[in-house]
Amino acid sequence: MNHARAAAPANPDEERIAQAAAQWIVRLSADDPAERRAAGAGFEAWKRVDPRHAAVAARMEGFIDQTRSLSGDGTSSPARAALASALDARAPGRGKPGSPGRRAAGLLVLAAALALPAALALRGPPSQWGADLRTATGEQREQVLDDGSRLTLGSGTAVNTRWSSDLRELELLDGEILVDVARDAARPFVVETAHGRIRALGTRFIVRREEHATLLTMIESRTAVQAGADTNELTVEAGERVRLSARGVERLGEVEPRATQNAFQARRLMVQDRPLPEVLDEIARHRRGLVRYEPADLESIRVSAVLPLDDTDRALQLLVDNFPGLRVRTLTPWVVLVDAAP
């Protein structure tokens, strides 16, 4: 079975918005001028209904521009260029270009091509859309919090903040954060996820939220952690890494604190003798679109490397350069296939 990784799956609402937007774009390329005008008015009204509609429409325009530039088409309208490309492609037994059957097939091709990036633009469940702090896939930024603490948000991260007179609390909904805690003896600093609670006893640590677990990496000083409903706290020291999950708190071994922090801030992936599918999963977290592969075919390839997560094309190329039996194919800017070379 093919394995596809994106920053997060689209839910039914996201797919519905993406499909609706794609259909509007297709209608804007109708042959009948009156139909185009009506579609334009309807499309503008649809975008005003919900901010997500307008966001997807903007992403689609950018995607069409990318498609046109890749194909070298110099026509003035990106939508028309994409549509013409879909309609003019010849396939044996499918009718002549411009025929009603061929045109319908072309519209479906265009709608599918548009809907994919639109769905990807809406990744993440609705609870994350309104998060207090958020980064897009491939983005990293630093935020100074109200108490002076510094928060670095990694790719595809969503965080809620809850500040009161006696508590400072972050809720990590998705992604990864580097926390540098400002001292405030009167207000404990806590990070919560679906898998547990981390209470700062010092200054600096990294928290990563995954689907079934949360990873904590201590950079400096200590934290007290508890998993799920367990009220017992475990102290984690600098240079240690633990996993919080339904199974409790598991110690994963030691890390080099300074190198780990530097790699996070420089957006570098450091791996030592890790299976290739695990490396591809991490690259996919930082890349817009899908990275598809068959895990069983690549599991035997072990990787030791430092890879640039701020340039995932280069990271994939470095893997190909170091593993001649590996093949990476970019079907579109949104879909990459990785497999063993024939």
UniProtKB/TrEMBL annotation:
**PANTHER family with a match to the protein in the record:** PERIPLASMIC SIGNAL SENSOR AND SIGMA FACTOR ACTIVATOR FECR-RELATED (PTHR30273), PROTEIN FECR (PTHR30273:SF2)
Q: Which InterPro entries match?
A: FecR (IPR006860), Ferrdict_sens_TM (IPR012373)
> What GO molecular function terms would the record report?
sigma factor antagonist activity
Q: Name the chain's protein.
A: FecR family protein
Pfam families, alphabetized? FecR
Residues forming the FecR protein domain are: 132-220
Q: What is the lineage of its organism?
A: Bacteria, Pseudomonadati, Pseudomonadota, Betaproteobacteria, Burkholderiales
